[in-house]
Amino acid sequence: MRDVPVTGRAPAPDLARGAALLLIAVANAHTFVTHRGIGVRAYPLDPTGVDAWLAAAQLTLVDGRAYPLFALLFGYGIAGLARRAARDGAGPDQVLALVRRRGGALFAVGAAHAVLLWHGDFVAAYGLIAVVLAPVLVRGSTAVLVLTGVAATTLLALLYAPVALTRSDAASASPSLVAPDVLSAAVERFGEWLFGNLLISALGLLGAAVAGVLVARAGWLDAPARHRRALRRVAVAGIGAGVVGGLPLGLVAAGVWVPSEPVALVVGVLHAVTGYAAGAGYAAAAALVVARGSATRPVAGALVALGRRSLSGYLAQSVVFVGLFPAWTLGLGAGLPLGAATLCGAGVWLLTVVAAVVSRQRGRRGPAEVLLRRLTYGRAPAAAR
């Protein structure tokens, strides 16, 4: 069994990954803001002015939408990995073993990321899904995948129902960010990740991951030019649903609307469920860009380069955020305006785009991708070009 060379990859998923990293950087940046109270989905409590508008916009378009997009692409990648292994002559048990090795490698990288940098890691959750549910992702029928996705999404929606009611004067939703020193922050972060984030993230990402497997089987991202009509429908319906379902919670976060408690619970469910639709819509939009032949243009090409080094780009975001924001580093997150955090997130993403383009020009993979492939295959990966 072998890993696929970079030049053999379909561009649409990588274009979507590169763009998704911008959404993830913006969505994560606000979680490092401290000493402003805790509002909806860890946004600052009672924002005003530009911050209020940004909170509304991000909850409508970004927050709860970026991670489903990435999870869909993860499921697509797992299906492709299994398909290539079978094509190379691997038996069913060997394919499952390969998927579980990839999952174990992802879990190890994600656990290190969570313990050393940021408790909100989602890479380990992907690894857990791949290890535990490899038979479902690889061999599951369409009916089994649909039922699994619906069950996971329903449970996630129930867990996120109270999100519109979140209000607290605490310094941060993550005690590790306001810990006074490196050691105490690491202890707090480990607990936050293991007991608070890992299982919830795995559950929250599972529905989109099985959707990604179904997308891979349909071939929509591999040959988008053949599926333009379906992709247009998914893009319009998915993004539209994401906007309609995300705006109410955005208005709550901005302080424009204070719903009654029963209505607030419905708002939380609506935001969570339509995030999956938005993620699928964003993926379809990226595929349509490729179908138009735009993937070779400079901007799209740069996003593809980053998408092919998405794990390195994701980890780099945490390195910069942790260096700037927590109390045990520079402490710049204390009282930081949401607008400044958003600009920082976008700026960090832009730096990773530049780094990815330079890496592509030099024919190199991302360092995290090299490590992941070594852990999966036990040897050096194929050359980048």
TrEMBL record:
InterPro entries: Bact_Transport_Assoc, DUF418. The chain crosses the membrane at residues 66-86, 122-138, 145-165, 193-215, 236-258, 264-290, 311-330, 336-358. The keyword Membrane applies. Residues 216-378 form the DUF418 domain. Keywords: Membrane, Transmembrane, Transmembrane helix. Pfam families: DUF418 (PF04235). The keyword Protease does not apply. It comes from the Bacteria. PANTHER family: INNER MEMBRANE PROTEIN (PTHR30590). This is Membrane protein YeiB.
